[in-house]
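Board notes (copied after class):
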Amino acid sequence: MSRARLNVYLEDEHLSRLEEVAAVKGISKSSIVAAALATYFSPERSAAVTRRLDALSRQFERLERDQTILLETIALWIRHQLAVTAPVPEALQDAARAQGRARFADFLNQLVRHLQRGGSLVREVWHEFDPPSSGGEAAPVTTREGPLA
């Protein structure tokens, strides 16, 4: 196998680490760099990177699906609340505001407790919809705009 000479400029930190490893292992700096390049260009590394990118793509798709479900849920809830909530008479508005503040404080306390437990209501609801024991991907959810991916 022929070899070519190459001059490379390294950061001081990288050079000192290279010299340290070469001294400890008793091998040349060139052989360490050649081995590192062989590993970097190996097909196994390329396959591992591809697998990792595929896994990240699937994870991103699940996040996107969950976010879409969450946004649809919030939008439907807001529309429902606005449609069914009667206006508060002027005389009762101060009491309604006080009750709203108390309910919101209670909501925040429940949210903090839930997050501290590490729970995920979205995950719980999703698992009720499609239990993990089904062995496959979650069943598709369809909205008026089409299926959620």
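Comment from the instructor: The helical segments are 12-25, 29-40, 43-84, 93-117, 121-129. The first strand starts at residue 141 and ends at 143.
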